[in-house]
Amino acid sequence: MRPTFRAFTLAALITLASQALFAQTAVQDAWVRGTVAQQKATGAFMRITSTQGGTLVSASSSAAGMVEIHEMTMEGSTMKMRALSQGLALPAGKVVELKPGGYHVMLMDLKAPLKTGDTVPLTLVVQGKDGKKETVELNAPVKALGEAQGMHKH
User: Fold this and answer.
1) Are 116 and 142 in contact (CB under 8 A)?
2) Structure confidence by residue, pLDDT tens digits, 123-150
3) Are the CB atoms for 83 and 70 separated by under 8 Å?
4) CA 92 → CA 17, 80, 83, 117, 128, distances in Å?
5) CA distances from 139 to 38, 61, 134, 154 (A)
6) pLDDT of residue 8
7) Is the pTM here over 0.85, yes or no?
């Protein structure tokens, strides 16, 4: 191995290790609800913990033309869904659960149907209290709603 290549490889490994060491955001139990033919939107759900606190400011996926962070609430007997234009607050050290009927990542203008067993690439951007942005890359499995309901409940 040539010295310059070895130095480059070592520098790349140190960079990756330091990014993992200083990661402020952890994502667990991510999944995406499967779709049926012609369905153009679905939700992604997960549990997010930010050690320092911050805001989930955006999300993206190559599987969808548009991705937004949404909140679903009941107003009387009507369920309403809206995009969170200011993002989703992530209090320091607390688990924020994105789940059906609550906060979720909305994938719209889907490029293809999503079936159980597929995986969906997701990129989340979290802005820390210090203003620095952290990118979290994940591949979320596609599950039927009934299959996913047996997951973590808090």
Assistant:
1) yes
2) 999 999 888 999 999 999 999 866 655 4
3) yes
4) 23, 28, 23, 33, 10
5) 23, 10, 17, 23
6) 54
7) no
Residue 41, token pair as written in the block: 């939107």
Spell out the domains of the chain, with CATH numbers in brackets.
25-148 (2.60.40.1890)
Q: 132: which 2 tokens?
A: 């620095």
CA distance readout (Å), 55 to 60, 64, 99, 125, 142: 15, 22, 17, 8, 25
Tokens coding 47? 């549990």
Check residue 61 and give its pLDDT: 98
**Length of the chain in terms of residues written:** 154
Query: Which residues are CB-neighbours of 102 under 8 A, at least 6 positions away?
Result: 71, 72
Confirm if 63 and 34 have CB atoms less than 8 A apart.
Answer: no
**Element at 145 (helix H, strand E):** helix 145-148
pLDDT of residue 152: 45
